[in-house]
Please model this.
Amino acid sequence: MLFAFHLTDRADAGDLRQRVRPEHKACLAQVAERIAFAGPLLGGDGQTMLGSLLVIDFTDRAAALAWLAQEPFTRAGLYANKQVHAFNNLWPQRAGFVDPPT
Model:
């Protein structure tokens, strides 16, 4: 089942986000085959990272929450607000594709 993670950074978290980002990306790489989409939420300038939006396949909500609890940004205290919802993807994605990560 897909789960959508809507995660909002603390107000003062820019430096922390940059410092922990390599660990965060490594953690995502471990579930790469189950990611429907993932990326940062951006401010009005289109550059400033304000949080994360992830949709990942997990067996159930408990597995999704367990993954989030060990995720590096969560462990570092980056997020001021965390919402996790089951998600049913009913519309095929046509926009927003980027080159595969290297």
In short: The mean pLDDT is 93. The two ends are 27 Å apart (CA to CA). Residues 2-87 form a domain with the Alpha-Beta Plaits fold (CATH 3.30.70.1060).
